[in-house]
Amino acid sequence: MLRYALQTLKARKGGFIGAFLALFCAAALVTACGILLETGLRGTIATERYAAAPVIVGADQNVHQTTIKKKGKVKEKHKAKPLAERVWLPEGTTETLAGLPGVRKAVPETNFPAYAVGPQGRIVPGIDGKPSYGHAWSSAALTPFELTDGKAPVGADEVVLDRELAARTGLRTGSSLVVQSTGAPTTYKVSGIAAATGGDLHQQTSLFFSDETARDLSGRAGQVAAVGLLPKPGVSAGELADQARKALAGDGRKYAVATGGERGPIEFLDAGKARVKLVSMGGAMGGTSLLVAILVVVGTFALSIQQRYRELALLRAIAATPKQVRQLIGREALIIGGLAGGLGSVVGLPIAYWLHSKFIDFKAIPDTLELTFSFVPFAAAVGAALLGAWVAARISARRTARIRPAEALSEASMEQRHFAWGRLGVGMLVLALGIGVVVLLGFLRTEPASQPVTFLSVVVLAVAVSLLGPVIARIAVAILGIPLKFSRVGGHLATANARANARRMAAAVTPLVLLIGMACTVLFVQTTMGDAASAQAKAGNKADWLVASNGPGVPAEATDALRAVPGVTQVTEIVRTQVRVGLDKYPAQGISAQGLTTNWDPDVSRGSLKGFGDKSVAMSDVSADHLGKKPGDTLKVTLGDSTAAELKVAAVYERGLGFGDLTMSHDLVARHVDNPLASSVLVKTAGDGKAGREQLAGALKRFPGIGVLDRTQVDDLQADVQQSNAEVNYLAMGLIIAFTAIAVVNTLAMSVSDRTREFALLRLVGTTRRQVMSMLRIESALIVLVAAVLGTAISLAVLTAFSVGMTGAAQPSVDVPMFLGVLGFAAVLTAVATLVPGRVALGGRPADVISARQ
């Protein structure tokens, strides 16, 4: 049987190429997604600043929760989730570690945002647009940095620059430099230039201050960000790390003692968070692509087997049993799956590297997170291809293997007209399941919960279309055939063909429905969320002006200057962060009390913002419902730096998409974030002396990088940010859409290429080549029209349910030009995949084709 399967594949290469390409693409996607997933689970984060310290001690950056389940026996379950801000250590930790027998020197690290200001008053970004940090000069030994010119900073007005920053700004020893850090911009004297011994840093720019100045600028008196341990001669990193763990055990705090590649997450907190993001993205992409692959391959195999009815009928006629037919088809599928999986897994590696680089370009992950992989993603891709091929073959061959020889011979020349009631019943069940998933989507109110269900809904409904395809095709032809009766030969032939070959039409429609439905859902989920958030933010912003910075933020001194401007009545500062309630993460903001109810309107539905202070919290309706809270209740929150706070719920508001789930006091949040500067400032003006942009800008003249925006500019800025965030999702799901597009071309090309004999017969009975091509054009138009209606209906149903759950209103936001672009792309694909093979099939002489196909 295996030998016959190989001979069949060799003789019918064209019939199997579509299935091979579908499995090949699926294996490549599964490999790429698996590599991203593995990178998120165990990817290495290289260190830079701590390169010379073999052991780094930092605070534990996670919030922990332990639950005990009792089901016959006690079972303890521990979970940990990362925090948004850096957790600092007590300053005494350095003294404790310095006394260890293996420590030559314990070096404390202090870091905080610090940006140079250029001669034109512009903020100078870090290298390649990355962050710029300030440090105490005593921590230079961690890299190490060594002076190439000048001297170490001693006075409160001295600073040492790294060599790369000095070269970009043209500064040298003795120059004056304005630095924007955590307070008002301050002028320093460049006392020296330093360079890292291993070469310039690529992930950050460094400015070094005296130890006392750095302590003041960090705003963390009595605390350190980390401690680097330099060992005595002969002491290994592992031995020193063990000493540190023993010395720190038992004081009630959790520490992270890191060596080797584990030092990176302590230095780069965002890289640690990116690992979680890669796990979720890789899992979602891999799972979705596998579901799409099985759906596409089932359709491709079904079409391939349908084209082989004559061959399979002859096998049944010469006494081949149903089991032997199933074995033959199954082994063919496994051979194709093995070849496609092996080659596709190899191609998946460069795709993974490309995806990794694009995610870095979009700043979704930092480039310190190195791509990591083993044989597992490749084996998983081959296994997925084999499984997909086997499942597709079993489903497609089920009915073919069971028919009697005489029925098979008759069916080889004409498609069976009666319904497959089993397929119809399963199709109705899957449709009911799809409707149930869509209904469930309408009750999901958080993005992490709703996004996987959104794309699952599209796939399940597309499976229902695949199963109900012949019925849908007959209904569509019955409706659309009425106007086509008035056309000439092409319309008549197209209608007759579609009516007689409903399964063939259904096989062509299914991948196109999936393409349109998936593309519209991917595109308009983003616009629905973005437009709803923008609308809420716009409606809730009652200020006349918004002040923002292209640097680290707006310092408190700038807001004081704004308050002193004649005509300014209210100035409200906003600082943003993320907090944990239990293990759940919530976007949060801190907002100052002045102008709270006049500059900002979150649409309070319960409670009141009057008397809002450091012990108060306001919650969105989504978070309040999820946590079961109401005004007057107590909410236990873990702030970004692990500080626990018990807050009283003052109000519940409706505009959570625009303003985040939790709102707290500005002063409370600013004390527990890495960057205490305001991300934005709302300004209200009134009276005859109403201040305008020029007056506000004049008051802010000495603060570099700060601008005054009106409402239109704020809306444009929000749109740019949303587009930037959406690019990652577009890229992630774009590969699956591209895979589906390839499947559309495969299916349509296979369908048309197998009709050479049919075209030849039409030519012999007097139909011209032009009329046959007209028939194909009308058929492709029918396929596009049916697929457009079904794909649009699926995406609209899913988007409406998504909108109901996430925004509270059945108002999906659809960009009409973008939607027409999707339909146009589908139409072009269909036309190319239909008309090009059609012209090739019409290339030979009809009589020669008929004789060759006997």
Put the structure in a nutshell.
With 854 residues, the protein is an alpha+beta fold. It has 28 helices and 26 strands.
Structure explained in plain terms:
The chain has 28 helices and 26 strands. The chain has 854 residues and is an alpha+beta fold. Strands 17, 18, 19, 20, 21, 22, 23, 24, 25 and 26 form a ten-stranded mixed β-sheet that branches. Strands 6, 7, 8, 9, 10, 11, 12 and 13 form an eight-stranded mixed β-sheet that branches. A hairpin with a 2-residue loop joins strand 18 and strand 19. Helix 14 runs antiparallel to helix 26 and helix 17 packs antiparallel against helix 27. The longest helix has 43 residues. The relative contact order is 0.12. The mean pLDDT is 84.
Q: What descriptive keywords fit this protein?
A:
alpha+beta, 8-stranded mixed β-sheet, 854 residues
Biggest sheet statistics: 10 strands, mixed
Radius of gyration: 33 Å
Uncertain segments:
none
The shape, in one word, is elongated
Number of strands: 26
Measured by DSSP, the beta-strand proportion falls in 15-25%
Residues in helix, %: 40-55%
Separation, N- and C-terminal Cα atoms: 25 Å
Blueprint (SSEs and pairs):
Elements: H1 2-11, H2 13-42, E1 55-59, E2 62-70, E3 74-82, E4 89-90, H3 92-98, E5 103-109, E6 111-113, E7 115-117, E8 132-136, E9 145-150, E10 158-162, H4 163-169, E11 176-180, E12 186-196, E13 205-209, H5 211-218, E14 223-224, E15 226-231, H6 237-248, E16 255-259, H7 264-267, H8 269-307, H9 309-317, H10 322-361, H11 376-402, H12 405-411, H13 421-441, H14 447-467, H15 469-484, H16 489-500, H17 502-540, E17 545-549, H18 556-563, E18 568-581, E19 584-591, H19 596-599, E20 604-607, E21 616-620, H20 621-627, E22 634-638, E23 644-653, H21 656-659, E24 662-665, H22 666-670, E25 680-685, H23 693-699, E26 706-709, H24 711-753, H25 756-764, H26 769-807, H27 816-841, H28 846-852
Parallel strand pairs: 8-13, 10-12, 19-24, 21-23
Antiparallel strand pairs: 1-15, 1-16, 2-3, 4-14, 5-15, 6-8, 7-11, 9-12, 10-13, 11-12, 17-25, 17-26, 18-19, 18-25, 20-23, 21-24, 22-23
